[in-house]
From TrEMBL:
InterPro entries: 26kDa_periplasmic_antigen, SIMPL/DUF541. GO terms for biological process: DNA damage response. It comes from Halogranum amylolyticum. Coiled coil: none annotated. It comes from the Archaea. This is SIMPL domain-containing protein. Pfam families: SIMPL.
Amino acid sequence: MRPLLPVVFAAMLLLAGCVAPLQTDGGVSAAGSDDPEVPPSISVSGTGTASADADLALVSVSVTALEADAESARARVAEDSRALFEALTDAGVDTDEAVRTTAFRISPEYDFREGGRELLGYRAVHAYEVEVSPEQAGTVIDAAVGAVSGDSDGEDGIVVDGVQYTLSEETRAEVRAEALEKAVDAARADADTVAGAADVSVAGVRTISVGADVDSFPQPRFAAEAADSGSTVLQPGPVEVTATVTISYDVE
């Protein structure tokens, strides 16, 4: 709850003719002016949060290989990437539209020992992001792991870097609009409270500014694998969007 006494005291002083703005820690300020043509005002910050179920999943996977030379590492990753794309296509993923490269590198890898280093070979990594529906995320993981098994010592193969559940542009726009409405309502409620305590009333909006949005992405939970298929099952939570506005109201 915001402390009202400091705000009320500030509003009374300023409405009586004090020219310096006073502000509370609660995001509410009141200001007056020597110019009779400029009415006093109250500035308020409001925050609103809205949420929706994720309708998009971004699965990050990497194909990696360690070989004696750079060309061999590149060729091995290219071969495994073809296998990955074939498996994704068989799983119903449109690889032309849903898959994009996020990183690619080939670099020497060393074993550092006391007094020097030993070249182990060249590491090639091709990282992809696969954009699918939330229901397909587990299928993508299973397809990737099944297509690129790697070698026995774990130097090559597939790496699942993570899954991010988010909102499509259309859904996010709807959720953001709801969050902004709540933020404006919260700001107006604070302005009415402060104005009432100062024995004035809100006359209208002078300025409005919108702060940066903050999205809260759910971390997927791994559910018990299905007994009949052993498939990966993920359970995402809702995605939250928080909006902030700062509104300056004229008072009378």
